[in-house]
Amino acid sequence: MGEIIFNCFWAIFFLVFIYQANTIETMGDTDPVGPGGFPLLITIFGLVLTGVVLLQSLKILRKKRHNSGTPPQTIPLWKHPAILCVAALIGYALCLDVLGFAVSTFALLSVLVYLFNLKSWPKALLTGVTGTTIFIILFGRMLNVTLPRGFDLLKELSFYLY
Which candidate, 106, 153, 115, places its Cα nearest to that of 134? Predict the structure, then answer.
């Protein structure tokens, strides 16, 4: 039930953001979309994804009500997916300046994919390499965003990547 309330909160947030994106003044620009076009596009995309997750949550809730005879499974707090995700993100933030973007992002993606999806280290490592490569090409090369390089040897190696 908490997930449904959380998704309703996001839907309201996205609707308010759509309103705000539409009120950005164009200042006489000749562009028909104006400066609110990109925020509007991203917000509509988020609203659609929130709707999909909300429908999935409602479907799961309906199944749980039909199978209410089985006792709920409890997991330890330290194994809860939200706790693991927050711990991984804190570790990523702490390691980003020391290890650099490439190594930290590879480690984060690999660990998260292993924990939440694949349960196979070779596939998780391949996903980490693929995701890191895509992020480096997109942000480091195409958008020219300055990415953290790390220290010493990792800094020198990062110049070959981005």
Answer: 106
Task: Write down the residue that tokens 């992020």 correspond to.
Answer: 135
Q: What is the rounded distance in angstroms from the CA atom of residue 58 to the CA atom of residue 131?
A: 31
Q: Does the reported pTM lie above 0.85?
A: no
pLDDT given for residue 20 in this prediction: 86
CA-wise closest residue to 75 among 31, 45, 115: 115
152 is written with which tokens? 């010493």
Residue-wise pLDDT for 42-51, tens only, equals 899 999 999 9
User: Mind listing the pLDDT tens digit for each residue in 4-26?
Assistant: 888 888 899 999 998 888 887 76
pLDDT of amino acid 63: 83
Both tokens of 1, joined, read 């039930």
Tally of residues, the chain = 162
Q: CA distances (Å), 116 to each of 29, 30, 56, 84, 127, in order?
A: 46, 47, 18, 9, 13
84: exposed, middle or buried (C-beta count within 10 Å: 0-12, 13-18, 19+)? middle
Q: Is the dihedral of CA 126, 127, 130, 136 positive or negative?
A: negative
For residue 103, give the nearest of 84, 124, 79, 128 by alpha carbon: 128
C-alpha pair distances (Å), 90 with each of 83, 87, 146: 11, 5, 21
pLDDT at residue 136, rounded to an integer: 92
